[in-house]
Amino acid sequence: MTEQSKKLKHFTFYDIYYDVIAQLEDDEAGRFAKRICNYAFNGVDSQGKTENENCFWEIIYPTLNDATAIERQDKKPYYLNRKMKHFTFYAAYARMLNTLKDDASAGQFVKAMCGYMLEGIEPTELKPPVDAYFKLFRKSLDLSKVRSESGRKGGRAKKKVEETPLTFTDFLARNSHIKDDVHSERLKEGVDWTALNHAIHKSEEWKSETSLYRIISNQSAIIGT
């Protein structure tokens, strides 16, 4: 596939992935994290081993697919970055997950890593060899955390396009061809529907787009902020 021809050296790991991983048993979490990495770095998907894994995959797949597609174009998924907590997941982390002796150990590591990076929780109950791996990668994780925090503080102010702000309902009413295929209400929060409405009508590329998910996922590119 053309989008997946560029091999990523790192990708953005969102808290929606952790929301799912935290619900899985350690062995399931390990396989799930490896599946995410295999898709992000190699463009390859594989069937999960349990029903839970496959069900939860459907929850995170739209975000993972859209974000990595943008990153393969040497761009940043700014809109998703503004909506969700995230950190940079490097290829070295994925190699480390595959180095651990079993899926359960990989699951324990990724849970500890996500808790530390996204919630600031210091892991205290890791057992060998997972504790040693976490200490080994601690400095890299800290650097990634600093970069993520700096990125969230950046960005430019949005342009004010119309005096009367549009609501989500107003936006759909003015764009009846757009289908509301966004399953997470969180992604709709804080959207500048006025600016988005103005921008898509000026864009030859986006004015006929029917997927609301794709539109709000690419809001930054559409509006030009």
Automatic annotation (TrEMBL):
InterPro entries: DUF6291
Domain DUF6291: 87-162
Protein name: DUF6291 domain-containing protein
Lineage: Bacteria, Candidatus Scatousia
